[in-house]
Amino acid sequence: NHISTTKEEFLDKIEEYIINGDNLLSGNEEFEGLDFNQKRAMQYLFKDSLERIRQRVLNNGRPVVEENNSNLEFNPPLYNQTVIDAFESKTLLNPLDDLDYNPYKIENYNYTLNNSTVCGLYYTNPNDRSTYYLYNYTSAEEAVESGAYVTHLHHCGYCSTTKDLSSYMAHMDLTSPIRDCAIVTFVSEEISLDCIQHSAGFTHNCALIWLYDALNTRKDCLDICLYDWIMHVPNNVPANSTTLSPCIQCDEDKSGPIFKAVAARTRRDSGLKSAINRPPDSIYNITHYYY
């Protein structure tokens, strides 16, 4: 599963980071470029994030605090543990080759999406749904006519697996755990990647594109996001609107297009409830009862 640490080894590493956090950050060139107040804030955020990561992994990936920031105008279903476990346990028979490049480092990367294409899940044996294939279809109608189930809008990608779907279902708020793991990149990208897998339960390749997204957002949005984290700015401003916080908007603008093209599965394209309010017409109308 490509995780370089066991749960116990990972927790030991996080404990080490908590104890030596200030010294570890001091060796980071980007950290050294911050002003005094930003450094103090980053030291606080680093330790605070590590504490949440430790608690989250001790809780087997369950959220430390459940956030209630859902959009009341649209209410996609929540899925119970039976559904989540069923999707997590399935085996994909035609996985993509491992993601061996960082798409954010490729100039003029093509992130164009076809808004009629869907990713369909096909069971070769409807009576044994333990294995499946993922195929691209030109439309939802074509997928259904072919005997497939639409699993999300747009083409299939590195987060299209049912294991990743189960992670999205299990974690209505992925912003907080991914943000905490992203801060670990100041010390180790490898441990940050392990953090994403241990905290969210993603497959290796899906976790990898989340890591690359986080690194790109750190590069382009650090000042904006540092301010939002210090000031505890909510995901939406005002909180009950669909206007994104400056940090999330920056991430969406700078990292979102490539992430959507490579990961493919997003909460909105999968019709899943989110801790970030979204316009109802941006959420794909789909349910997942084909487990």
List keywords for this structure.
291 residues, 11 helices, alpha+beta, four-stranded mixed β-sheet, 4 strands
Describe the overall structure:
The protein has 291 residues and is α+β, with helices and mostly antiparallel strands. It has a domain at 81-167. Helix content is 46%, strand content 7%. It is built from 11 helices and 4 strands, in the order ααααβββαβαααααα. Strand 2 (118-122) and strand 3 (131-137) form a beta hairpin. Helix 1 packs antiparallel against helix 3 and helix 4 packs antiparallel against helix 6 (162-170).
Approximate strand percentage = 5-15%
Helix content: 40-55%
Main pleated-sheet profile: 4 strands, mixed
The number of helical runs is 11
Q: Tell the overall outline.
A: globular
Instruction: Give the integer mean of the pLDDT values.
Output: 92
Number of strands: 4
CA-based gyration radius: 19 Å
Flag low-confidence runs. 65-74
> Biggest sheet: strands side by side, in what order?
1-3-2-4
In short:
The protein is α+β, with helices and mostly antiparallel strands.
Strand and helix layout:
Layout: H1 7-26, H2 29-32, H3 36-58, H4 81-88, E1 91-92, E2 118-122, E3 131-137, H5 140-145, E4 149-153, H6 162-170, H7 175-183, H8 189-200, H9 204-230, H10 246-254, H11 256-263
